[in-house]
Design a protein that fits this description.
six-stranded mixed sheet, four-stranded parallel sheet, 10 strands, globular, binds pyridoxal-5'-phosphate
Amino acid sequence: MVYKPTTTQLQINLQNRLGIVSPSPLQPIEFKDNTSEDTTFYVKRDDRIHPIVSGNKWRKLSPVITKLYTNLADTPPKLMSFGGGYSNHLHALGYCCYLLGWPFVACVRGDYSNNLTPMLKDLTSWHTKIVWMNKLDYRRKNDDSFIKALTQQYCAEHVIPEGGSHADSLEGMATLISELPAEIDAIVCPVASGGTMAGLIQAITKSKRDIAVLGIAVLKGQDYLEELVQSLLANKSLSINIEHRFHFGGYAKRDATLTEFCQEFTQRHNMPIEPVYSGKLFFGVTQLISEGYFDQYRHVVILHTGGLQGARQTS
Ligand SMILES: *Cc1c(COP(=O)(O)O)cnc(C)c1O
């Protein structure tokens, strides 16, 4: 008889091959200006899941990669996805494909061929096929006929949307919710393409737990982000609570205040944050604490989604 491993064994085998830390640590954090003595704050350290396959990108990719891994055919699956020149998503997916020996096509917005970012240099060393796209073409990244032509041209079989946010990816956040102790009554996360927040809301609803979800927008997108999160949810009537005061002018935009905040926070808490996602998240949380926003909760989790690679300077 041929030995056939179970799906659970294959899942564990996959995590071992990639070096995934599961569950991620949950650690208490003391804020210097926390005046609400009855509220305790914790950080869910998804940045510690993996040094490269960062935080929420692994959460979102894991359902797709696990499904492919547990149903492997004779030839490895060939994947394609989309992102910018600093994309944590392309970086995480590129690394997984490299370790697993799966061909990967990365469609990148813009042409960096004469000036590779550190992220793109990594992809190149991991044998990713990079396709440079102008802005007009890139805008068609969710357009069926465009994707069909691309997949034919590059012989790709599985297309994962930009940021890894799509209905299948939400399942990965259910694992995160199952890792949280029962007393948690609120969770705060950054919002960009919406998959993380939508996944949290969906997992909480499904598990019938009573945990409030607050999103901190890292880009300018009042109403747009609410609609984006809503569009990913199966149940369209769930309310979406996003704070829009802490994007610092737009995606990846920053000023001296934010840069200083990140440096000071990293030192004080011995916990690295960067200005694109976690910096804005913790800046927003600090401000909301001073406004007494969290007084209504007892045990608040702040989700550190990782993403430290994206903050590397171009060398
Ligand atoms: C991509 C990313 C986010 C944004 O998550 P969405 O699901 O796109 O809203 C947040 N933090 C980090 C570190 C990321 O890489």
